[in-house]
Amino acid sequence: MENRKVFLNEHTNLLELEEHMYPLVDVDTPNVFRNLFRYDEIPKIAFNDRIVPHHMPDEIWITDTTFRDGQQSRAPYTSEQIVTIYDYLHRLGGPNGKIRQSEFFLYSKKDRDAVYRCLEKGYEFPEVTSWIRASRKDFKLVKEIGLKETGILVSCSDYHIFYKLKMTRRQAMEHYLSVVRECMETGVRPRCHLEDITRSDIYGFVIPFCVELMKLMEEYKMPVKIRVCDTMGYGVNYPGAVIPRSIPGIIYGLMVHAGVPSELIEFHGHNDFYKAVNNSSTAWLYGASGVNCSLFGIGERTGNTPLEAMVFEYAQLRGTLDGMDTTVITELAEYYEKEIGYKIPPRTPFVGKNFNVTRAGIHADGMLKNEEIYNIFDTDKFLNRPALVSISNTSGAAGIAYWINAYYKLSGDREVDKNSELVKRVKAVVDKEYEDGRVTVLTDEELIAKIDSVCKELHMTL
Ligand SMILES: CC(C)C(=O)C(=O)O
Predict the structure, then answer these.
(1) Residue nearest to ligand 1 atom 1, measured at CA
(2) What is the atom index within ligand 1 of the atom nearest the CA of 193?
(3) Which residue numbers delimit the Pyruvate carboxyltransferase domain (predicted)?
């Protein structure tokens, strides 16, 4: 009992009986949590009903991995594209630096050129950080380029330690600590990417390791960031779920038992089970200041947490955008489609072609009466994307006029009226389609073609 004492937990204000030492549990055989992860069965979510309190930090932010995890999973961006996207991220994050950092490869000359060009912009945010192989030579490179922080891979599950690195936990921990120390010796802030944390032994490896990292932080008087990597997307946010799958449980353990302050905890999610966004918001709610995201969720396999989604999560949780310019999201989507050739699936929230298009005639009717009925918020104001209705047999002249005005962004004098000749003629063509037996809604392309041909008949342009 010498190591145990009762103390007031500053996060919960509850008296707790706490073990002050979390020694490394150096097992002989890997703990791969077969009760939760049997490869020939669907992974399981178990509960022990231990409830973890909310602890949303005073300040929360987004960091970006578009050029690292994002780029890892697709054809490389050109330097020009990287610099352009970086510019957009700077504008999107706003003056308060809500998109705080972005991480860059330094492997090739092309990677480094992009970094130099982004640094030349002189923006405070997003701070340019790196991702490198963990070697003294690379730490020096980071320093020479003038970057202050680098990501270092410190995989923490026994899947990685035993099967990939072929090490014991002790060997892995000693190896990681020596690499982190070397990084700090070079004067570069380490950001430790705890890969596969949601399949790791939290109290047998992660907490003891993070306790040691916090000691290094003390020794070098330099922050050490802990990135909580839900590499396979196994994390869950259900109250009372057991670790290692519980994101609240992991964040709580890091804060309370390893003493990692919120501003040094960052969550990195993957979307394999459709949970990346919820897990990221959960990480914020339970004490991580940072969530690491990628534009449009582009990342390994099913992708990462979409950055644009967390902008709207931020606004919902904090009641303010704190200076973020959400219209840049639409500019970015257009840039990806037109310049990068990336096809955004049409139903993608906030950026897909159809994200705010109401199709059913009956819903469209509601939209015509008051667009709030079927639009999530003023998408025109925040995303330059007016709510649209699709056209079918039930749309009527008012529906067609609404569609034309919204699609062609006509307002004031340019707005078309439901009694205009254009609308009457387009309606006649549409009605004829349905009289002839059509049962589906008209696509945008079909409508545009019909409107174009009526415009030609009427010698007018929109
Ligand atoms: C490679 C690691 C750091 C990662 O991105 C992840 O764990 O998802």
Answers:
(1) 195
(2) 3
(3) 60-330
Query: Which parts of the chain sit beneath pLDDT 70?
Result: 1-20, 360-362, 364
Tell me, what's the pLDDT at 2?
A: 39
- Cα–ligand 1 centroid distance for 66 (angstroms): 13
Can you read off the two tokens belonging to residue 85? 């996207």
pLDDT score for 8: 57
Degrees to nearest 5, angle at CA 442 with 441 and 444? 130
Q: In this structure, what are the phi and psi dihedrals at residue 314, rounded to the nearest 5 degrees?
A: -55, -50
Amino acid at 448: I
ipTM of the complex: 0.95
Distance CA 269, CA 276 (A): 5
Alpha carbon separation from 190 to 25, 80, 101, 143, 409 (Å, rounded) = 24, 28, 14, 12, 48
In the prediction, which pLDDT does 377 show? Answer: 98
Set out the domains of the chain in order of their start, with CATH numbers.
55-338 (3.20.20.70), 355-456 (no CATH)
User: Among 20, 24, 15, which residue's Cα sits nearest to residue 1?
Assistant: 20
Does residue 103 line the site of ligand 1, with CB under 6 A?
no
What angle, 0 to 180 degrees and rounded to 10, lies between the N-to-C axes of helices 327-335 and 79-93?
A: 170
The residue whose CB lies within 8 Å of the most ligand 1 atoms, and thus the one to mutate among 67, 152, 193, 302, is: 193
Ligand 1 in contact with 68 (CB < 6 A)? no
Q: Whose CA is nearest to atom 8 of ligand 1?
A: 231
| Cβ contact 368:389 at 8 Å | yes
Phi, psi of 59 (to 5 degrees): -125, 135
Could you identify the residue written with the tokens 């982004």? 118
Strands 357-358 and 388-389: parallel
Rounded Cα gap, residues 209 and 206, in angstroms: 5
The model carries a pTM of 0.90
The answer to whether 227 touches 264, Cβ cutoff 8 Å, is no
213: three-class secondary structure by DSSP: helix
Residue 361 is predicted with a pLDDT of 63
Q: If you measure from the C-alpha of residue 197 to the centroid of ligand 1, how many angstroms do you get, rounded to a whole number?
A: 10
With beta carbons less than 8 A apart as the criterion, state whether 160 and 197 touch. no
Given this model, what pLDDT does residue 134 score?
77
Q: How far apart are the C-alpha atoms of 93 and 430, rounded to whole Å?
A: 44
pLDDT at residue number 411: 87
